[in-house]
Sequence to fold (381 residues):
Amino acid sequence: DNIVNFRSENFCISCINKFSIIRYNPLYQPQHFTSNDLLNEEPINYIESLETISNILESCRFHTSSELSNKMKSTPKLLSGYFQNIDGNATNFDQFVLELASIKEKFSFIGLAETNVDCSNQQLFQMDGYTACYQSRLFVKEKNQFKSKGSGVCLYINNLYNFSHDEKLSTCTEDIEALIVNITNLPELVTVGVIYRPPSGNLKEFNAQYNKILSNLKGKKCYLLGDFNVNLLNLSSEEESNFEETIFTAGFTPAISTMTHQMPHCKQTCIDNIHTNDIDPSIISGVLHNSLSHHHPVFLLKELPTIEESKKPDKEKITIHYNYSNTNLDKLCEDIEQCIDQFQNDCETFDAFLYLFQEKIDASCKLLTPKKKKVPTATLR
Fold:
């Protein structure tokens, strides 16, 4: 009972908990598979994008404050985000500021959830070098008052940046709280948001509303920080799987893959995350140890292009595009079942299997007219 199997290896539970060995990565493949020449032929940019996402998730780990400070200091042109479920500004804000000060460099943007604070009180919670943008708590009509606990989100934007509040995409309901802003004085517009999903809310309704937000952000470079209250380490229900599919179908990916939350005597969970559609090999993501609450802070770092690089026209990264919808995947499965004898008879080597498997994927999922898109649309099942 004390042994856990993960990726064909056995670990004791104490090591699992101490070193956060279990991680989320639906795109993980053994090395002999990802380096196979057949996969690197076409569509090469599609494979590269998936490998980049997988590498980000595999590299995500716990950092100390000094480690993170050194990483940030060594990269002068950096876009950096930080998120913390603060579990109440009134009791935890001062401690939050102290722990944040242990990281010597300032972040581009910081998101907080469960502030339990209204916009009218945001002046009480200021941080040097940042401009605060608060969204009020959920108003409960039945009680004719604001929700007293477990509500409220905010963003702190570094004073180096100008930003505008996106009121159309920002929302506060019993199922989702979202605060969205646009940073306007970078080489290109960047959208930043903080998301909170109340655990008492309806996950199906959250997925629908979150999907609308992601759809409206298409074409923008986005970073959405939040506490989603869906454990990526154990997607055990249909709606939890739909949450994952909502993210990837919109061209986004989670950047955090290891545990971020643990209550006493409970299993570790990965519920705090940063979702982005700006897939870049320079991204570094991770989790920090702290004593503020049961939630650990999460962060993301990404190198910014120089002004000269940003003026260069974007290259169309994808020349061949595949639509992995449920319908196409069902068609693929049916095709494989009908040709199972062919797989058994013709696939004497792994390369032969990959070649035949790629043929079946092309027949079922390859678009007749390729789409031009920097980030591939992939539906995970």
